[in-house]
Amino acid sequence: MITSATQQLRASYAFVERNAYLIRRYWSWELVWLTYSIANSLSVSYIGLGIEKMGGQNIDGRQLVLYLVVGTLVWRYLSLLFYWITDMIALERWEGTIEYTLMAPIHRLTHMLGQTTFAVTYSLLFTGIILAVTVKLFQIDLSNANLVGATLVMLSGSLSFIGVGIVGSILPLLFPERGAQMTHVIIALLLLVSGVYYPVEVLPHALQQIAVVSPATYVLEGTRSALLDGLPTIQLWAFVRPALIAGAIAIPIGLWLFGLAERYAKRTGKLHRNG
Amino acid sequence: MNEIAIHVQDIYKNFHKQSSFPWPRRNGGEVSRQVVAVDNVSFDVHKGEIFGVLGPNGSGKSTLVRLIATLLLPDGGSITVFDHDVVRDPMAVQRLINRVSVEASFFKKLSPMENLSYGARLYGLNNRQARIQIREILNRLGLEASSVGKPVEEMSRGMQQKVAIARALLTHPAVLLLDEPTTGLDPRSKREVQSLVCELRDQEGTTILLTTHDMVEADTLCDRIAIMDSGRVVALETPEKLRSLVPSQNGHAPTLEDVFLELTGKKLVSEEANS
Ligand SMILES: Nc1ncnc2c1ncn2[C@@H]1O[C@H](COP(=O)(O)OP(=O)(O)O)[C@@H](O)[C@H]1O
Ligand SMILES: [Mg+2]
């Protein structure tokens, strides 16, 4: 049993190493993607200053910028995580390696563990770079911010997004041609309801109800409290707890649904493109 | 030579061919077309045997291989690999097998070393030893040392196929499934692969199931050959007995090709579209 557990752990590193190799090969693409993400974050954040200029004197542009900066960063982090998990299935489909990966003697948990270990590390680094650039440009003062607490909140929120990502990766598994594009729908809906760029209170009642169950809502509120109000880590538990619970529900459900989809794919011959 | 490595019993598999998106169904229009890919096939492969499967394109060879490889779930019948059921205990089977398919499926931007290192880790192999072995096997297969670090996409199809074979050999499978491993290879590469197949069986006692369109290859390599047509096994004999199934023509002793054409002849024209 022990040897089999260590073997599974070892096997999970296969995904970490492979993804690192892929990044190395596609490094120029990573730079493009980073530039895109920074430009995106900045243009959203400038809306804060823009509104101050256009709107009344009562609006505190700086405060608005901070609000939006945290929104873009947390959202970048969570969606990166999501896409790393779904894209890997999509890429394996595209390359035709999926049959070899699914034929290997590993548990799906091992597979996802390796994949998410990499995804979390990558997404944190990536988001960290954007944070550094944004802080410099807007001369944001982080001396009162609880950076450790913010990272903790983000990490706890990762779990649920990993679960959502696993569910999302079912789409490219079952729909070779359009599956990857369909995953965007999941991210767009979560963006709408989770209060990334506005407080969820402005949403219609029905959408607010959905916001309650979106794990991103708590991650965003928690990160804002940590970065903007410098809330001590112990008080952040109020945000970490629902995020952890959501994760504890989402990951097993994700794995279970993925298992069903995998069996369905093996029954109907969806793993290979041609006969 | 009496232990049974692969036991295939009344195995049945059909596919629904439909548009990639399952809904909405057009009312009254053509619903889905059923294809019986493997139709009540039974046979045993003995330990250490090289078992050939011949048949025209679309006769169900690859489907059969995928069923043994746990990549497809059967609609009827059962398959065991050294007494492990492919449906009930897929992981036990996965530990014993590996497969080479006709299309060499790799992360094309990654090098053979990177691709194979990934493969080795998936099977829980020690990475340092695996890397040494990867060089050895690739060298043995005639791949220049300089190609080991270059992207797979820059290699010829023959070279890629050798890397695919190396990927399978690396895990020292007790049962090796070779699905048209020599299709598209030049004569020298073909020979190299063929001698490797013999060597594997002679030195490691590997059980090999081989599908091929090369009649000479089948004749010289295989201990027994099953000829498939439209999902059914229409003959299962040693090459010598198969050759004696058809009368000699124009004074020539019949070749395996004559037998193949005789047993599957009616289908040659109508099935050529499938591959
Ligand atoms: N995933 C699949 N979906 C639908 N039909 C399939 C699938 N795989 C194979 N088939 C069909 O099953 C039949 C047998 O195919 P295959 O096993 O690939 O034959 P072979 O390897 O002998 O050429 C063919 O008609 C093929 O089109
Ligand atoms: Mg085939």
List the helices and strands and how they pair.
The complex is a heterodimer of chains A (275) and B (275).
Chain A: H1 2-25, H2 27-54, H3 61-95, H4 98-103, H5 108-138, H6 147-168, H7 170-174, H8 179-193, H9 205-213, H10 215-228, H11 237-268
Helix pairs in contact in A: 1-5, 2-3, 2-5, 3-5, 3-6, 3-8, 3-10, 6-10, 6-11, 10-11
Chain B: E1 4-17, E2 33-46, E3 50-54, H1 61-68, E4 76-81, E5 84-85, H2 90-96, E6 97-100, H3 112-122, H4 127-140, H5 157-169, E7 175-179, H6 187-204, E8 207-211, H7 215-221, E9 224-229, E10 232-237, H8 239-243, H9 256-264
Parallel strand pairs in B: 3-8, 3-9, 6-7, 7-8
Antiparallel strand pairs in B: 1-2, 1-4, 4-5, 9-10
Helix pairs in contact in B: 3-4, 3-5
The complex binds adenosine-5'-diphosphate (ADP) and magnesium ion.
Provide a brief overview of the structure.
Chain A has 275 residues and is an all-alpha fold.
Characteristic terms for this protein:
heterodimer; A: 275 residues; globular; B: alpha/beta; Rossmann fold; six-stranded mixed sheet; four-stranded antiparallel sheet; 10 strands; binds adenosine-5'-diphosphate
Task: Describe this protein's structure.
In chain A, 80% of the residues lie in helices and 0% in strands. Chain A has 275 residues and is mainly alpha-helical. In chain A, helix 6 (147-168) runs antiparallel to helix 10. The longest helix of chain A has 35 residues, at 61-95. Chain A is globular, with a radius of gyration of 20 Å. Chain A starts with a helix and ends in a 7-residue tail after the last helix. The model of chain A has no long low-confidence stretch (mean pLDDT 91). In chain B, 33% of the residues lie in helices and 24% in strands. Chain B contains nine helices and ten strands. Chain B has helices at residues 61-68, 90-96, 112-122, 127-140, 157-169, 187-204, 215-221, 239-243, 256-264, and strands spanning 4-17, 33-46, 50-54, 76-81, 84-85, 97-100, 175-179, 207-211, 224-229, 232-237. A six-stranded mixed beta sheet of chain B has the order 6-7-8-3-9-10, sandwiched between helices. A four-stranded antiparallel beta sheet of chain B has the order 2-1-4-5, with helices on one face. In chain B, strand 7, helix 6 (187-204) and strand 8 form a beta-alpha-beta unit. In chain B, helix 3 (112-122) crosses helix 4 (127-140). The radius of gyration of chain B is 20 Å and the shape is globular. Classes of the chains: A mainly alpha (275), B alpha/beta (275). Chains A and B meet through helix 1, helix 4 and helix 11 of A and helix 1, helix 2, strand 6 and helix 3 of B. Bound molecules: adenosine-5'-diphosphate and magnesium ion. Magnesium ion (MG) binds next to helix 1 of chain B.
